[in-house]
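Data deposition worksheet. Section B asks for the primary sequence of the deposited chain exactly as it was used as input, without tags or linkers unless they were present during the calculation. Section C holds the resulting structure in token form. Section D is free text for depositor observations; keep each observation to a single sentence. Incomplete worksheets are returned to the depositor.
Section A, Depositor: J.P.
Section B:
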Amino acid sequence: MRTPTLPKRHFSRRNFMQAAAGGLALTAMPGFAASMLTLPTARPQVFAHRGASALRPEHTFASYAKAIADGADYIEPDLVSTKDGVLVARHESNLIETTDVSKRSEFANRRGKRMVDGQMHDGWFVDDFTLNELKTLRAIERLPQIRTANTLYDGQFQIPTWEEIIEFVAAQSAATGRVIGLVPELKSSTYFRDAGLAMEDRFLSIILEHEYTRRAPLEIQSFEVANLKYLREKLGHRANIRLMQLVVNMDIRPMDVAKAGGKLTFHEMVSPAGMRDIATYADVVAPPTRDVIPLGKDQRLAAPTSIVDDAHQAGLLLHTWTFRPENRFLAADFRDGNGENARNEAGSVAEIKRYIQTGLDGFFSDDPGIGRLAVG
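Section C:
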């Protein structure tokens, strides 16, 4: 996830956790036996951020498979749209950082500049490629200077479609005998709508047609507001589905709000009153980690904010993003002396444990195996 630049609760936090613990949400679904309900409920849930992206190139089957093997409760596909309207997994519309498109001479003339989510980007854009063209590209590591070992996998994997990911997770669930959730993010909805490639109805048709997503835990996230409200209207309150409002405590507006000329800012959305409003259409609020416990001037953890308690008071779950295992991403409290790009498992576990003490309900991690160690 990347920060953008611009009625009563139907199911309380306690009720959701009690229902999941007792099997209410899932055991009523044909094909899911009570013995398969291995998702933790009283403990925070671990969301694999773009898969196990600290260990494999993000949004590849290798990354998702590693995340599942390491115990992730959910895996995250960020969804964007191809030119011919197929939903695929990339963190953003620009393909330059995560594929080998810059080395493909046949696509050299498609490079250009485009405004996406309030920022100008230079590169190749997913909505200029058909699915068949996109499938000729191969994934590469997005942070090669930091995650050097991941570059060994460059060129091995195609860009997966949303439907392929669902089938892959369904197969992994069948193989492991445990329920594996999906936490898709609808990326840049306003951008794709303006391009004539609105994603919401296509997304809905897929999840409602596929047997696995009619049953398994599904948590749908967005930095925009209108798309989540639309999904709530269309989906109602299905037992296996939660909607997650992504936020950041800054005076910037969601892109759909800005596009419509509205004034609502994310800073207002994370106020107690704003949380109560979110609770009318979503089940989860998801701020970045440093909005839960900020860093002081010395880059060490300061006192926790009230955001977790405020969310719970509004009847929302709180999931935070994103924990990363390298020293450069850790608070100074937890870094070791092995260099800023060094993997620091012990420090990352200790940092996550500090955040768990705030009472949060789940978190995204680039290394879900470390997240599982922290949860215990």
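Section D:
Residues 162-176 form the longest helix (15 residues).
The chain is about 30% helix and 15% strand.
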